[in-house]
Every structure is written in structure tokens, then in C-alpha cells.
Amino acid sequence: MSDITIHVAFRGNTYDLTFPSSTPLSTLTSTLEELTAVPPNLQKLLYRGKKATSQLDDVSLLDVGLRDGTKVQLLGSTVDQVGDMHKAESEKRRRDGIMEARARAGPSKIRSTGKATVNPYVFHATQPLPHLPSPHLAQALLQKLSTDPAILHIMSTHKFTVGLLAELAPHENPELLGLNQNKGEIIKLRLRTDAYDGMRLYKDVRRVLCHELTHNVWGDHDNNFKELNSQLNREVAAYETSVQKGSHTLGSYSGAYDPSSSVEADALSHSHVLGGPSNASLDDSRDARRARVLEATLARLAREEKEIEDMCGSAGKQASSS
């Protein structure tokens, strides 16, 4: 039986491995564990539209369709990463248990000690990917998202709790921008550009975060999901508008579109024509321009939301990442 060489890509590295074609799949997964620290039971091998896991370890490389020159994408978490996620999950279960016990106990008299009440509707932990370049920049972005006043406002309003806010690596899940596991147990976000030459725009990442927070309530991208997702984005815009105006109290939000870029805002609020023939024609021209800008902006937002929806790994499954 002839030898075959396969090329395994994992987190920016490529491993060229040569085996006899009759080699058991378990030998390959054990070798990959030595090279990547990903245990065989957590390995997923993607190639030519196929997928192999350690559950198929009684078969040979040839049996599972691996040929000479096959390019394989390895997906999986290391033991350390799994340990970190388990710690975050354990902490979330502990906190949830405390909240449930308090709810069952009902109201009671508590003597004030002057200490502030702990707010459960927050991100309990953040986690960048330490093996990627400049992890401190990813941590700074996660920290900014997790303490964003507008995001914390909607989390408190809708009683959202997230155990772990983590980074999603472009090379591991190139088809995803975000992922929500178990309705907020873990939310992962794509922070970096595809070329790893910097971080994605903050407001773009925050829109994906609003999308993934919506999956705390709704799994599929149905009308219920779209309505709540739009509501969250409106509430974020309303909160920031109130802060800019110096308002300390948020009233009911009208639902009118709050422009996301200064160019669109200027076009909507300051459109004018110099030397117009009459006030009526001036108003008509201004209204027409406002309508065109609004239409174009809404179309742009719809396209962006469709892209986020297409690159979301959470719809219809809240259990685990793919």
C-alpha cells in the first residue's frame, strides 16, 4: 500500500503528514494531538465536503476518503481552552443557582449594609485567543464591549446574562461572525480582520453582539428574532442619543431610525439648497433628499443584517459550536 501525504491546517499553521494509506484514523488523530494539544475526541477534520471525527477510529485513512495531497482543516479546542470554558460555565451555573434560590425564597427583610447589589445581567468573563497575534488588543476590544453602557442597558432591560464573551478565530470558522452557545452560556465574536492585520470596526462587532444577544431568547432567524434584534439596535441608539443630549432618563423610544454614521445624520438633519426658487420647493427638495437618504440607509442596514444573519452560527442550535 502506497504512502499518502495530507496537509492539515490549524490556527494559522499547516502540518504535512505522511502515512501509509492503510494507517488507522486513530493514528492520525493521536499525531495531531501531539502537534496541536487538541484531544482526539474534540477533533473535527473537514476536507472535500466531508467530516471525520475520532468516532471513526477503527477505519483507515483510505476508508474515510483521505488521499495523497488532501487538504484538511482541523477544528477543535485544546484542553486548556476547554478547562477555561468549563470554569466559566461552572461560575454561571453557580450564579444562576444563587438567583434561583433567592427567587424561590421570595421577598424578605434585609438590613442595609451600605453595599451595592450585584447586577447579574452582565458578561461574567471575557477571553481572547492567546495563540493569535496581539491578544491584548483582542482583550481590550472584548473589555470595551462587555462594559459598553448601551449594551449593559439592554442587557439589564431584557435580563440577559452571558457567562463568557470570547473571541472567534477567522481561520477556525471562516464562515461565522458570531456564535451563541446555550442561550448566553458563551458568546463568541469575530474580532479580527480576515488578514489578521487589525481589529474589525467596533460598531460592526457590536451589531453582531446585539444579534447574538437576541439568540438568548430566539433560536431561529424568524420574525420573532428579527423584531427583537431590531428593538435591541433601536434601544442602543436611543440610549446613546439620550447620553449625548445629557438626558438622565430614557423615555419611550419612537422607533424612528437613528442614523449610524455622521454622514447620514448630517444628510438627514441639515439638508439645504442655496438659492432655491421658493420655500415650498426648498421643503420639497429637502424632504425628497431626506427620503432618499433614509431609503438608502435602511437598504444598507438590511444588507448588513443579512450578512450577519448568514454568518451567524447560532440559528436553530444553542448547544455547541460547529
TrEMBL record:
The record places domain Ubiquitin-like at 2-75
InterPro entries found in the cross-reference section:
Ubiquitin-like_dom, Ubiquitin-like_domsf, WLM_dom
List residues of the WLM domain: 114-302
What positions belong to coiled-coil segments? none
Name one matching Pfam family: ubiquitin
An example molecular function term from Gene Ontology annotations? proteasome binding
Which protein, by its recorded name, is this?
WLM-domain-containing protein
